[in-house]
Specification:
By secondary structure, the protein is an alpha+beta fold. It has two domains: 1-134 and 322-396, Phage tail protein beta-alpha-beta fold (3-Layer(bab) Sandwich), CATH 3.55.50; 135-273, Sandwich (Jelly Rolls), CATH 2.60.120. Helices cover 31% and strands 33% of the residues. It has helices spanning 3-16, 21-33, 35-47, 54-59, 62-77, 87-109, 180-183, 314-322, 332-343, 368-379, and strands spanning 119-120, 130-131, 135-136, 138-141, 147-150, 155-158, 164-168, 171-173, 187-192, 196-201, 207-210, 214-219, 227-238, 247-251, 254-258, 262-267, 273-279, 282-286, 291-294, 298-302, 307-311, 324-330, 346-350, 358-363, 381-386, 389-394. The strands form four sheets. The chain has a 19-stranded mixed beta sheet that branches.
Length: 396
């Protein structure tokens, strides 16, 4: 596929906050080799996602793009959703093809008044409409209760006692402060809605990636004895090592205590929580005060009473941070739950749904219609999209 078509896929990932480190390296190589594409990239990312840049769309050969899309669809049509690593390669091409269609939909429909801008026309699959993937968005509740929308634009927010919060490179940054005692009593809350995603750096330098439908609360400065935060939802943490101040994440079902490590924590209120350790060491304390330590590569599921330790599939547990869905022995309701949070949709089931399990991966940069088409090839299901409601039913 030509470099300009690939650039469109990178733009989708950029605006959805799913541009991985590997993507960034590949993009940098393309921009170094093609200065004209660098100009296009800088213009699009500086101005934001718009349909009014006629020159960009005119220079993109949409007819050839459609041919490429059809070619890739023919390649992937014979490949059902299977638990094989080669699916990831198919997912890459599907992501590029679907991104082109999504951008065509944006160009035609983004500026129509009184429309949910995430809802666009379906270009190829005959659904009533399509839904764009989630993006990088969140709100921040300051210590005085004021709620601020966070955007991609570089900005400085002012907190009590003159503390400044910086937004740079699409991330919220907190910096160490000399006013530790005063700031430790002030709380901020980062709220990521459905179809959202956000990254931040805490006052101690720890990095956090926060997934859809999640909320993270924390002080503007940590105390001298511990670093306490509270999570509802899912987040990936890279904790700065500090042996004198353990980092503690409180959830509905228990607390995670670490010194310096990387782990993924899923703690939605309506499901069993789980934490997966990538490196370092963590100790989980349940609501009943039972504690358990795990080693890298392990996963522990907990619900406030019981804890179950197992070997983790690291790729599956952290795929969302890298920009794709990863399914392994998952039933349709589990798959649709992930899609519902990322696309901000409501899922309705019509009739009995098979309890068979499925595996594979799908790029989070594709539109909802493309994701559903990939799933239904191996699942024996039909889907209907009506605005942001998806109906799931058996083919029979």
């Amino acid at each position: 596929m030509d470099q300009q078509s690939i650039l469109v896929d990178f733009l989708v990932k950029h605006f959805s906050g799913t541009l991985s480190e590997a993507d960034a390296q590949a993009l940098q190589k393309i921009l170094e080799d093609h200065p004209s594409l660098r100009q296009q990239w800088e213009k699009q990312t500086r101005q934001g996602l718009k349909s009014s840049d006629a020159a960009f769309w005119n220079n993109l050969d949409l007819d050839q793009a459609r041919i490429n899309i059809l070619n890739y669809q023919q390649v992937t049509a014979a490949s059902p959703l299977l638990a094989q690593r080669k699916i990831r390669k198919i997912g890459l091409y599907t992501g590029i093809a679907a991104s082109l269609l999504v951008f065509i939909g944006i160009a035609l429909f983004l500026n129509r008044p009184n429309m949910d801008k995430q809802i666009v026309a379906d270009q190829t699959h005959q659904y009533k409409n399509d839904v764009l993937p989630g993006g990088q968005k969140a709100t921040l509740t300051l210590s005085d209760g004021k709620v601020v929308e966070l955007s991609h634009q570089q900005a400085t927010l002012q907190e009590k006692y003159g503390e400044q919060l910086q937004i740079t490179d699409g991330q919220l940054h907190y910096k160490p402060s000399n006013q530790q005692a005063e700031l430790a009593s002030l709380k901020n809350t980062l709220t990521v809605p459905e179809s959202g995603f956000y990254r931040m750096v805490l006052p101690d330098g720890s990095k956090v990636w926060v997934n859809s439908a999640s909320e993270l609360s924390y002080p503007l400065a940590f105390s001298k004895t511990s670093r306490n935060v509270m999570l509802r939802g899912e987040a990936y943490f890279e904790v700065t090592h500090d042996q004198n101040r353990p980092f503690i994440v409180s959830t509905t079902h228990g607390a995670i205590k670490v010194l310096g490590t990387s782990f993924n924590l899923k703690a939605y209120h309506n499901a069993i929580s789980n934490v997966t350790l990538l490196n370092g060491s963590i100790e989980l304390t349940n609501e009943n005060k039972t504690s358990k330590r795990i080693v890298p590569g392990q996963k522990v599921e907990f619900d406030g009473r019981d804890m179950r330790v197992s070997q983790a599939n690291i790729e599956k547990e952290t795929a969302w941070r890298q920009g794709y869905f990863y399914f392994e022995h998952d039933q349709i309701p589990e798959i649709m739950e992930q899609l519902s949070r990322w696309y901000g949709i409501k899922v309705v089931y019509q009739g009995p749904i098979s309890k068979k399990t499925f595996g594979g991966s799908i790029s989070r940069s594709v539109s909802l219609a493309e994701a559903l088409e990939l799933i239904k090839r191996g699942a024996g299901l039909e889907f209907e999209i009506n605005k942001k409601t998806v109906t799931v039913k058996n083919k029979d």
